[in-house]
Amino acid sequence: MSAVSDQRPAGTAPADTGHPADEDLRALFGQSTAVYALFTGPAHVLETANPAFVATFGEGRARTGVPVGELLPQLAGRGFLDLLDQVYRTGEPRTGRDARVVLGSGSQAREMFFDFTYEPRRDSTGTVTGVRVIGVETTQVKHAQRLVTKHRALLEQIARQAPLTEVLGGMARSIEALAPHGVIVSILLADPDGRHLYHGAAPSLPDFYNQAIDGIATGDGIGSCGTAAHRREPVITSDITADPAWTDFRDLAEAAGLASCWSMPILARDGHLLGTFAMYHHTPRTPEDIDLALARLFAGTAALAIERHHIEQAKLTAEASAKSAMEELAKTVRAERRLRGEAEQRAEAAAELNARMRAAAATQADRPHPEHCQLGGTAGCTEPAEIKIADSWGDSAWGCHDHVEEAILNVRSVFIASEELGGLAAYLNRTSRR
Fold first, then answer.
1. N or C, which end of the chain has less CB nearby within 10 Å?
2. What is the CATH T-level fold of the domain 143-315, as seen in this structure?
3. Distance in angstroms (rounded) separating the CA atoms of residues 288 and 180
4. How much is the pTM?
5. How far is CA 257 from the centre of its chain?
6. Annotated region Disordered: where (predicted)?
7. What distance in Å separates the CA atoms of residue 178 and residue 183, rounded to the nearest whole number?
């Protein structure tokens, strides 16, 4: 598209440009170019044209004295020549909408759209001698309509929390379709500390290239993306073969057929690095304003998608952590209840045993005190019976110091039966005397 100069009246100040985002939208929506040409005779020979017509179609195409069919053969079959014929034949003005013109060929081909107005030219007798054509370029209007549609679809994806890979992949393909020149888009995602970049989306780059740069470090002189991430500012590499930052990646870029790369950091609202947005070309190129505006617009959209993804991931992590903590708490509560129940059971058993011991001791307390030890077994023992022992089943016996001590050591349920009878005191006194 040809540039349009600022033609303000003398003494008029420039309009307030406002927010940088407004400038980007202005560059994307642009200003229409008006072309003007006069054609003569039934063959519609170009008589004259304004500079915009020449700039748009090229001097080689805008030669005067040449029929329009030879100048613009790509318009054949698109209604342009038919309307010229109708106006010349009927003398009635006509309009044509969205006439598509393709300039150049191959990788240099450029698609343009125009709204044309056709008006008859007459001589002094009223006879139609030619046709006056005024065309207003609508290329950027078309692109803007596509842009709005694609951008709205991306925002809807983000709003419904579509997977990040789906959003970024769709974004890359949309930009590749919207860009006025052939472009390949790559989006890399930064790790939490901002020291490495990982594959996010690059549907049109070769797999070997995506794999090779997956996980590259950020730093000054590490390709366009590593440098842009490190500097937190756009990095324009118009010719990869001549940029020192690409020394370590030049062979890789050549194998992928990449000749230029423009990279822009994707930043969160608080300024920390989220990733990079890169636009590659197969030929050396310097970006135009519309290229940079498109990159900034979608880098901002990518930032929104990535931040939303991080928020959702943090939410899921927090929910998982809370669920795990609740499960651990439930386990702890169940274990505490089990231990408490076991402790209560042990306490009940101990209380029952103590009650049985007290009952047994009370039962044996009134039995007569024998003269000799009853613990000597079949051989008998002639030592005095000084200590009374009993067990929890109610059996009791009197014995000497030695046999009582042996019984206590070898029979776990045996205990000193009665302190009131002096047995325990005697036993303790005997122990202290040793």
1. C
2. Beta-Lactamase (3.30.450)
3. 10
4. 0.52
5. 28
6. 1-21
7. 9
